[in-house]
UniProtKB/TrEMBL annotation, chain A:
Active-site residues, as the UniProt record annotates them: 222 (tele-phosphohistidine intermediate), 291 (proton donor/acceptor)
Protein name: 6-phosphofructo-2-kinase/fructose-2,6-biphosphatase 4a
GO MF annotation terms: 6-phosphofructo-2-kinase activity; ATP binding; fructose-2,6-bisphosphate 2-phosphatase activity
Alphabetized SUPFAM superfamilies for the sequence: P-loop containing nucleoside triphosphate hydrolases, Phosphoglycerate mutase-like
Record's GO cellular component terms: cytosol
Keyword flag Translocase: no
Coiled-coil intervals, chain numbering: none
GO biological process: fructose 2,6-bisphosphate metabolic process; fructose metabolic process
Binding site for substrate: 221-228, 271
Residue ranges of domain 6-phosphofructo-2-kinase in the record: 2-214
Membership in a protein family: In the C-terminal section; belongs to the phosphoglycerate mutase family.
Keyword Phosphoprotein: yes
TrEMBL record, chain B:
Organism: Sander lucioperca (Pike-perch)
Keywords: ATP-binding, Hydrolase, Kinase, Multifunctional enzyme, Nucleotide-binding, Phosphoprotein, Transferase
PROSITE patterns named among the record's database cross-references: PG_MUTASE
Catalytic residues as annotated in Swiss-Prot or TrEMBL: 243 (tele-phosphohistidine intermediate), 312 (proton donor/acceptor)
One Gene Ontology term from the biological process aspect of the record: fructose metabolic process
GO molecular function: 6-phosphofructo-2-kinase activity; ATP binding; fructose-2,6-bisphosphate 2-phosphatase activity
TM annotation in the entry: none
SMART domains reported in the protein's UniProt record: PGAM
Signal peptide feature range: none
Protein name: 6-phosphofructo-2-kinase/fructose-2,6-biphosphatase 4a
Taxonomic superkingdom: Eukaryota
Length: 426, 455
């Protein structure tokens, strides 16, 4: 029933955002549950040629350089094959310039031999400001550790020049049988050709929604709730006095941040709505931001769950990500229903999301590229705001406690391997 | 309090500021020669947007022209040198735009689809100015196609049935229509990457083989692009049915996760036979993650995919209750539900409106797929059916979806042909009509008048 694996192939001159796109796409696909890995040929080259000397390595007439680069591409493709056929990978992102039709043809043949579908992602950009910005990111590469900025920029520009003459962009006629998306001018325009299946359709939708405009995303939970202080999970209770205090402090904090045009989102549960009310700004309620449904365990204390459902409790500790409360949800379910939130967060700019512990863990895991194993144990304490700002290939996180006491609702994974209690023999 | 109100956007209750959270309305404008699928796309897009809760209406200029020029004579009306014809067509376009304005500014419309050829830059400029004056965002949808087979198919499927050609034979009609297309070809100015770089648009080429997307401005345009990129016109059929009769069904109880009764299992077998007889190539089978749909699909002996989002509507505190018990324990809730069955949300449960939200990815994937059998549940099936048959939110919760009956949906022309096939296995009736009295002060008997018989 498994679809054949997909090989995503980037295309484009240096400093066009290929690695940015590769890493982001990989993060997104893994988060929604599609095992994906990126293979950056530059990395392979750095492992092969220990010390980077200069752009001369990339000159089209540098036989030695060409040989090494071909070998590196081959090594990377080999690892791609292993990942997709033996390690359970579903998608591999082959991140390199791939600027000639010849190189792309080699990859297509490789994919055909192995039964992989190929989808090209080309980034075309001639905006000098954007390219300059990108180069700044590239300067953080190990290639330029020992250069000053001016030298590095100069060398990098010459590196780009090495590719320009032989660059064959994906062509509407010559490449009409290939599946690809051509992203032009950082997403102003897209050309999409022959989308073959569901995953390619999702990839196209995702790539068309992301942007690189600087902004920040603020994540926090509702203020402390009545059920919180009683050690109970779920439910739909209101805020305690301390929770209301948090609302006020949050309002101050938001003002101090001086954010232009901040969107505020809440769930449809009382505690997040009450928290947002204190902000005195318009906000949007999303049902899909509601806390994880604990089914039969709703409003119970952990002690009660242990009493009434010891088996369930143990099973949950064994696999907290996939475990589904009877008549409830799992973290895995939560990720599914939060996907439209992530998609809209990608479209938006400055957003504050007032949500819940499990929900916040899922969203955080997306931005910080956490695994399914780590996700259910991420620390998201009450009365603390996480400010996420995209930077380079990842996300900067600032944790700001608003200094209002609250109960701790974080339950760590128990130390020893939890044995599943055997029901006593009758 | 948010009783029964589950809309996604809610304005903060602040009396001092009437801050408008509603985005400004969107005017979708089709572009393309005749027989390029503009009306097909317009109608389908309108149906989709309405189903997901965005009030949308289409305005077909050809309709306006037919109301103006009662009898269509020939393609000569469309000749570019026909002054009289041009005058009438301009008036019709204006009349349509006037109605667009009224719909978007006074009737609560969110999206209007302006369906006409709009093949010249001049005409499009007029529309852009109109939109600017009224504060509407404009998004163009152009369909470009030179495949003669596709064009021929379009003409046969939809044009020949048009009121314009009621009194012609096929040959005459096709010939006239081809000449009609010719009238537009010389002045056709396709959306240009350079000249139109500041416009927001999607250019669909060769029935979806290739797309050019320019300047998508907001969420709704992004959703429209995603939808248009997922639909196709390959002939296929979608089969909808419920699980076989379940234990809770026979006891008149709603929700839960029970298994099939012997009759329910019989249905599974009959369904398997039916599927074989249909001789469908490459049928995908989808179920929910509840026992009763899985057990039904198991009888088919083919691979199937389980979707959690296909699970039945969550009746919250009323799960596994009989209607009589709901009337006993929650008479207020019961009445409120009868008052607005689409938006009503069971306490700790869901509304039909919520269901539509969670079923959207199913619809999107159904659009991508070809032959599919969806084994689901009463409320879920009503939602899916409403999408295909363009039913309103008021009609949706009362659509008849009896057990042991398969609905075969086949796209045809601008809509969907429905065939209802009962597999002749008896089952309890689970359909509860809206009672006469929905007042909260009603008597028990009045509330229970329409409850179907059960054990």
């Amino acid at each position: 029933m498994t679809n054949c694996p997909t090989l995503i192939v980037t295309v484009g001159l240096p400093a066009r955002g290929k690695t940015y796109i590769s890493k982001k796409l990989t993060r997104y696909l893994n988060w929604i549950g599609v095992p994906t890995r990126e293979f950056n040929v530059g990395q392979y080259r750095r492992e092969c040629v220990k010390i980077y000397k200069s752009f001369e390595f990339f000159r089209p007439d540098n036989e030695e350089g060409l040989k090494i680069r071909r070998q590196c591409a081959s090594a990377a493709l080999n690892d791609v094959r292993q990942y997709l056929t033996e390690e359970g990978g579903q998608v591999a992102v082959f991140d390199a310039t791939n600027t000639t039709r010849e190189r792309r043809e080699t990859i297509i043949q490789f994919a055909e031999q192995n039964g992989f579908k190929v989808f090209f992602v080309e980034s075309v950009c001639e905006d000098p400001d954007v390219i300059q910005e990108n180069i700044v990111v590239s300067l953080g590469s190990p290639d330029y550790t020992n250069c000053n900025t001016e030298e590095a920029v100069e060398d990098f520009m010459k590196r780009i020049k090495c590719y320009e003459n032989s660059y064959e962009t994906l062509d509407e006629v010559l490449d009409r049988d290939l599946s690809y998306i051509k992203i032009m001018d950082v997403g102003q325009r897209y050309l999409v050709n022959r989308v073959l299946d569901h995953i390619q359709s999702r990839i196209v939708y995702y790539l068309m929604n992301i942007h690189i405009t600087p902004r920040s995303i603020y994540l926090c939970r509702h203020g402390e709730s009545e059920l919180n202080v009683n050690g109970r999970i779920g439910g739909d209770s209101g805020l305690t006095p301390r929770g209301k205090e948090f609302g006020k402090k949050l309002s101050q904090f938001i003002l101090e941040q001086g954010i232009s045009d901040l969107k505020v989102w809440t769930s449809q549960m009382k505690r997040t709505i009450q928290t947002a009310e204190a902000l005195n700004v318009p906000y949007e309620q999303w049902k899909v931001l509601n806390e994880i449904d604990a089914g039969v365990c709703e409003e119970m204390m952990y002690e009660e769950i242990q009493d009434h459902y010891p088996l369930e409790f143990a099973l949950r500790d064994q696999d907290k990500y996939r475990y589904r409360y009877p008549k409830g949800e799992s973290y895995e379910d939560l990720v599914q229903r939060l996907e439209p939130v992530i998609m809209e967060l990608e479209r938006q700019e400055n957003v504050l999301v007032v949500c819940h512990q499990a929900v916040m863990r899922c969203l955080l895991a997306y931005f910080l590229d956490k695994t399914a194993e780590e996700l259910p144990y991420l620390k998201c304490p009450l009365h603390t705001v996480l400010k996420l700002t995209p930077v380079a290939y990842g996300c900067k996180v600032e944790s700001i406690s608003l200094n209002v006491d609250a109960v701790d609702t974080h339950r760590e994974r128990p130390e020893k391997r939890v044995p599943v209690p055997v029901p006593s023999a009758q």
